[in-house]
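Re: the 169-residue chain
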Amino acid sequence: MSLYEYLDQRERELLSEIEVLNGQIAERERELDDIGATRKALGIEEDKPEPLSPHERVSMRIMVTRTLKERFPNGATITEIIEHIKDTWHRDIDRNNLSPLLSRMYQHGHLGRIMSTRGWFLIEPEKHIQGFRPYLDRRASRIVWCQPEAAVDEDIYEPLRTYGHNTAA
């Protein structure tokens, strides 16, 4: 295994572990909200400081990955990503800070581009087969992975960009 393959594999493992931990944190936050609502309903109020949100520790990379995976599986523009991060994590991300991250994720093969919408989509290597390429199926408005010979009608299938490939052909 090359160093690049090891780093890529380890990065995927860590992102997966972080996603599980974030899910556990979200469960605990919901439980705390329920406790707070119950205290309020019973008239029990305490003067204690608001706990820090664990979302403050979530990296931009994880927020982008989760946004594209959970909210926009068929791609999103940078504006949609920024708005979703603001709505979900209450974080104001500057376009000038996000753009270089998206470019790096693209160069590392984690993201692809939808040229017609100027959107980004998440590439999950385990979800496609060797030799298949991503296309935007305009009829269904979704991303599909297929062999280039199967996607010859460019009126239906828009070839999507991935790093090292200007088109899917």
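The first strand starts at residue 111 and ends at 114.
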